[in-house]
Amino acid sequence: MTIRNWRKYKPKLYEIVLKGFAFDEIVENQKESYEKARVLQEKYEKGRVKD
After folding, report:
1. Which of 2, 7, 23, 46 could pair with 14 as two cysteines, CB 3.0-4.6 Å apart?
2. pLDDT (tens digit per residue) in 13-37
């Protein structure tokens, strides 16, 4: 109900809240991508022949 009221009566605040939700989602996706890359790097380093 509150967000609906913000959308109607405080559109800038509503926009900021939605952008915050989108930002949180982007950050979470980046964390997941980083973890996947780290795991791949560890697998590569374990499988690499030592000089």
Report:
1. 7
2. 999 999 999 999 999 999 999 999 9
